[in-house]
Amino acid sequence: PMDLSLANKTAVITGGASGIGRETARYLVCEGARVLLADRDAALLAEAGAEIRALGGDCADAGFMRAVEIG
Description:
The chain is α+β, with helices and mostly antiparallel strands. Helices cover 35% and strands 14% of the residues. The chain contains 2 helices and 2 strands.
């Protein structure tokens, strides 16, 4: 990966539990950023958070990750 100087930066990623959002979270964590994930699917959100932490990343605590109901 290229050095994007993302240490001490935080990214908020909507749709972070799957697809492009989840992959973006993985990439940003590998570049040194902290991530806060938001998604409508609580189960996938918890799984994504666990994956980010397993990569050594700093992800919002499970207590802060919430599924958002739209509509």
